[in-house]
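Annotated sample (chain length 291).
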Amino acid sequence: MTLTNPVRPGATPEVVAAVRGPRPRPSPGVLAAGVVLVLLAVAAIAPNLLAPYNPLAVDLDATLQPPSWSHPFGTDLSGRDLLSRIIAGTRQSLLIGLGAVALASVLAVVLGLAAGLSGRVAHVLANRWIEVMFAFPTVLLGLLLTSVFGPGQYTLILAIGIGIAPGYARIVRGQVLAVRNAPYIEAATALGHSRGRILLQHIAPNALRPMIVTVTLGVGQAIIWASGLAYLGLGVPPPAPEWGALLDAGRTYITVAWWLEIFPGLVIVVVALAFTTVGRHLGQRLEGDRR
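Output written by the structure step:
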């Protein structure tokens, strides 16, 4: 049995909406994730609006205080408010996540298109490069780049971006291979359209469509990777309030000041879940639009 599209070509948006039915409303989880991302954006753009204290202010009379009304997340060894430091580190952590995903996306598009569209030699080279990078651990790559460039946020962006790029490249390659032999590509070729026009107007938009969801999901993944590398001493050096650096600084005192590890870790998990939830919702919406 063959399913046909009930929407006729040239139908108005009202007719399309009536045939397809009303779109499902976002679930409470999606709305909560959206609120988290809005707070994340505010903390990155204007941290002073949310931070109750100066994140760099040292108060030796308030060292290692547990969570209280005056310090909801407690204080660190120097008496600095942990909540304020987490808020202040949002910009740097988000920059690492977005920068790594942007780098991975660029590499993925280049490698994916080369593996799916180019000649036989370039196709083989691109596929072998993707396989080699898949076999290269991100932690080992972080160690190598840290030894060359030193620890810092740009080293993390480079290590994580290169580390997650092969997965993105496989997605792009698979979409290109699925699209390049589609009937509308054959029709465009028969009409005499140039190879560049077919690539830009037909292949690229359809092949890169899933990357919207992948990139959204990847930001949370990149933040977790950055925190893990920082916990191993490969991240941003202190006294930066980047979330991974906070975890690294608090692990020495985990037996006497549990809040130094618990609260930064919870923030990382919540942010990663928010990006994942929004990414899955976008994926469902895009799949619905394609039907």
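Annotation: The longest helix spans residues 259-290.
Annotation: Residues 1-19 have pLDDT under 50 and may be disordered.
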